[in-house]
Amino acid sequence: MTTTTFDTMAYAKRFKAAGFTEQQAEEVVTALREVRDTRMDESATKGDIELAKLELRKEIETVRKEVESAKVEIIKWVIATGIVILGGLATINRMFPPTPIYFQPPVQEMRLPAPVPTMPPAR
Fold it and tell me: How many Å apart are CA 12 and CA 57, to the nearest integer?
């Protein structure tokens, strides 16, 4: 944190020139100094902001690495679970084989062609 100078005598002289009494000028300058000190404690400098940026970047990089390792672990678990499920299905299929269903092609209807109309015999 950087400190800034606050010339209380110069401010007191300005207040006196504006018509304040000596006691009023001193009180106003004291109040201003307290406000400045409070604000300086609460405010951040460029260095503070840069330091916070660096810390955040480090934390982001740490989280990124953790996410990458979590991705790898999830992929491993998904593959392992798939293998276990396929193995279980193969075991069940071997222990209790399904009844065979034979494919029968659909029966084709054999229709006779329509009779050709003939002329009735002449009488």
Answer: 46
Q: Say whether pTM exceeds 0.70.
A: no
**Residues 6+ away with beta carbon under 8 Å from 32:** 6, 11
User: Cα 103–105–107 angle (5° rounding)?
Assistant: 140
Segment 7-63, tens digit of pLDDT: 777 777 777 888 888 888 888 888 888 877 776 666 677 888 899 999 999 999 999
d(CA 96, CA 120): 69
When the pLDDT of each residue in the chain is averaged and rounded to a whole number, the result is 83
Q: Which has the closest alpha carbon to 1: 58, 43, 61?
A: 43
The single-letter DSSP state of residue 96 is S
Q: In this structure, what token pair is assigned to residue 73?
A: 């672990």
DSSP state of 101: -
Contact between residue 45 and residue 1 where contact means Cβ atoms under 8 Å apart: yes
Distance CA 80, CA 104 (A): 39
